[in-house]
Design brief:
Blueprint: H1 3-16, E1 20-21, H2 45-49, E2 58-66, E3 83-92, H3 97-109, E4 124-129, H4 133-142, E5 150-153, H5 155-158, E6 159-161, E7 166-177, E8 204-217, E9 227-241, H6 242-249, H7 262-272, H8 280-301, H9 310-328, H10 336-347, H11 353-392, E10 397-398, H12 400-410, H13 414-423, E11 427-428, H14 430-452, H15 458-467
Parallel strand pairs: 1-2, 4-5, 10-11
Antiparallel strand pairs: 2-3, 3-9, 4-7, 6-7, 7-8, 8-9
The structure holds adenosine-5'-triphosphate and magnesium ion (3 copies).
Adenosine-5'-triphosphate (ATP) binds at residues 39, 67, 70, 79-81, 84, 86, 206-209, 239-241, 243-244.
Length: 484
């Protein structure tokens, strides 16, 4: 089943159940405290926390999302994109737990000829809060799920809240069992103990999170707060990962191989001459390319422009990481003009506005690649000088300080430096590089502390102001190097 078809079925299913169909909000959230829309519930927050009355009792959407906290997972797990689509159904004081569980079960297991996704019921697992008797009983007794596949978890594992006093509640999560070839069985094996267990993550895939917004919570750190009682208006907020469902239904191995992404990877293979499936690290780069090209497309479409701070920096980083991955695959020609139009053609069915806007979008993305190419050229000249000097003296190690200067001043990614050093028979002094990075971080921290103490000049103050609303501060290129 194509990804756009899952999207369409979702909306049809919930329209049929009297839900107001709400179009996806922009990736750029209207809430200035959130950098991007990270979940389907974001546009509905006022209705869920009760600061506004919902204009409809139930709603459904397929929301475009960006999660920067998943960037390091991209290409390494089977299921994390920086951009993805979260399908959600919502109830504001209307149906509650049993209604939400019934709808989810019906949509997941109704066969494909009758509007559902047609998942094999025997492969579905459900996780619930250990004190949520109502959900447990409903899913085992009414839905009829084998109790062996219903796992009860402590509050730390399965509770939603906003981080401050207000609404909170337990979740119920659907997981799909991909089968024995992906890991030990959660029933007969001793590991994993439950589907959400990290060790089990290749086998048991979380596909749908149902949040039962039930309690009023008090003050407390983490999940350690008192529940003060039941809310007057209880809400339902759910999120199903469209790409995860797509990859499971399309019989491929991970979300980067779905119809909306894989043709970009195929093009990247063709350009680089590397074959997907032949080498683990190459595959990670190919998946990063498939993911990041799409995320860049969707971000620029929603009005983000590359820059050095906040949203713009995230976009810049995505484009540069994609270009860098192509270089690490041995391809150093212009790459976005070959890849971006493919991504657009794959996304346009679900997002028709991409067609008319594509000239503008592509100009922005191509210009950013050009800027990065110039950076890389300057860096390469400096690299050649340094490497030449080391070799002339018969050395075999490229000093960490030089690698750091390339990185810090010229924006030259460390893994590229390492790769290029390898090509000329040198090794980068990684320890020295790391300690230079560490020193820089400490300097930045000291600066921040000075700012807090009031020792701040107006330029810094202005920059801080423009950063407000950016939950991800400008970190230079440091995050690019966490793998080292
Ligand atoms: P995981 O534990 O796998 O990281 P999550 O618990 O962080 O997922 P939720 O915040 O519950 O995810 O989001 C609801 C649903 O959205 C998930 O059940 C999943 O199907 C999907 N989802 C979450 N993050 C991603 C992502 N980075 N890429 C693709 N789909 C995602
Ligand atoms: Mg997550
Ligand atoms: Mg989870
Ligand atoms: Mg979850």
């Amino acid at each position: 089943m194509r990804t756009s078809e899952i999207h369409r079925r979702w909306l049809d299913f919930f329209a049929e159940k009297d839900h107001e169909i709400v179009p996806s909000a922009s990736l750029v959230s209207s809430d200035p405290s959130i950098l991007f829309t990270i979940a389907g519930m974001v546009p509905f927050i006022p209705y869920i926390i009760g600061t506004e009355t919902a204009p409809y009792p139930r709603a459904a959407s397929v929301q475009k999302c960006i999660r920067t906290n998943d960037i390091e997972n991209v290409g390494r797990t089977t299921r994390h994109g920086t951009f993805f689509q979260m399908a959600g159904n919502f109830s504001f004081g209307d149906y509650f737990k049993t209604g939400a569980i019934d709808y989810s079960w019906e949509f997941l297991t109704t066969d494909q000829d009758h509007g559902g996704l047609g998942f094999d019921p025997e492969r579905l697992w459900f996780t619930v809060w250990e004190q949520d008797e109502e959900s447990y009983r409903h899913v085992t007794e009414v839905v009829g799920l084998d109790p062996q596949r219903v796992v009860r978890l402590p509050r730390e594992e399965i509770f939603w809240d906003t981080g401050q006093p207000g609404p909170a509640g337990p979740c119920g999560e659907w997981h799909y069992d991909r089968g024995a070839e992906y890991g030990p069985d959660a029933v007969t094996g001793t590991v994993p103990e439950w589907p959400g267990d990290e060790k089990a993550e290749d086998r048991y895939i979380e596909i749908w999170n149902l949040v039962f917004d039930q309690f009023l919570r008090g003050e407390g750190k983490g999940k350690d707060y008192p529940l003060l009682g039941e809310l007057d208006q209880k809400s339902i907020d759910t999120g199903l990962g469209v790409e995860r469902v797509a990859y499971l239904l399309q019989g491929v191995d991970n979300m980067y191989e779905i119809d909306q992404i894989f043709p970009v990877i195929e093009k990247a293979q063709e350009l680089s001459g590397r074959v997907y499936g032949a080498d683990g690290e190459d595959d990670v780069h190919l998946r990063i390319i498939g993911d990041h090209v799409r995320s860049a497309l969707m971000l620029v479409a929603d009005g983000v422009r590359p820059g050095n701070e906040g949203r713009g920096y995230v976009l810049r980083r995505l484009i540069r990481r994609a270009v860098r991955s192509m270089r690490l695959l041995g391809y150093s020609e212009r790459t976005m003009p070959a890849l971006l139009p493919i991504s657009k053609s794959l996304m346009v069915e679900s997002y028709p506005a991409l067609e008319a806007d594509f000239v503008r979008i592509s100009e922005i993305v191509y210009a950013e690649e050009e800027a990065f190419r110039r950076t890389l050229e300057t860096g390469t000249t400096i690299f050649d000088d340094v490497a030449g000097a080391v070799k002339k003296e018969g050395g075999r190690v490229l000093p960490g300080e030089d690698a750091f200067r390339l990185h810090d001043t010229y924006g030259f990614p460390i893994d590229l430096t390492m790769e290029m050093a390898g090509e000329v028979g040198l090794q980068v002094d990684a320890d020295a590089f790391r300690s230079a990075m560490q020193e820089q971080r400490e300097r930045a921290r000291a600066d921040a502390a000075a700012k807090k103490a009031g020792h701040t000049d107006t330029a810094l103050y202005n920059r801080l102001l423009t950063q407000r609303g950016g939950e991800v501060p400008f970190l230079g290129y440091t995050e690019d190097t966490v793998a080292t």
